[in-house]
Amino acid sequence: MKRYTRTGDTGETSLIGSRVDKHHPQIEAMGLLDELNSHIGLAIAHQTDTSLREQLTKIQHDLFDLGSELMYTDSPPKTVDLSIVTELERWMDDWEKSCPELVRFILPGGSVESASLHMARSVCRRVERDLTALGVADRQLPYFNRLSDYLFTVARYANVVAGVPDQEYARGAAVFQPKRKKE
Fold first, then answer.
1. Cobalamin adenosyltransferase-like domain: from which residue to which, for each copy (predicted)?
2. Rounded distance, CA 134 to CA 9, Å?
3. 121-177 per-position pLDDT tens digit
4. Domain ranges for the chain
5. CATH number at 12-162
6. How distant, in Å, are the alpha carbons of 32, 37, 144, 159 from that of 124?
């Protein structure tokens, strides 16, 4: 099978239900999902923690599933079980136990492992903004909101694994409430 089809040579591409311009908002959203998935793939390549690599790979599969819902011009099927939002929350809670307490905003970066996850997080925020503007994927917004939080958390964890402290924003105040100890 040849990889090229030539069907997009005139600036159009296909959604399920019609041909649209390549700058169509749904195609733009699909492109951002692809960019996010690629950044996650790069982040996976930098990680040494097997559990983290497995979770990030599952997220890549979830992104393909979520993207498939964007491929319809009319009433997309709700094929994705959004219990994956709860799964992200559970994973985040587990990773956060290994991270130092967050007091101030931190700068993206630290180790290469962490920086790659921060890049994925910032692209995820762009996906979220784009889907909000698009309006066709409102039910997916909690997933992308949680995914960006997850990527932030695992970026901090990656710094812990690498032995690199988070760099706090120098001019920032203590904005996060300390965890209260259970009595």
1. 4-158
2. 25
3. 999 999 998 888 876 667 788 899 999 999 999 999 999 999 999 998 888 777 776
4. 12-162
5. 1.20.1200.10
6. 8, 9, 7, 20
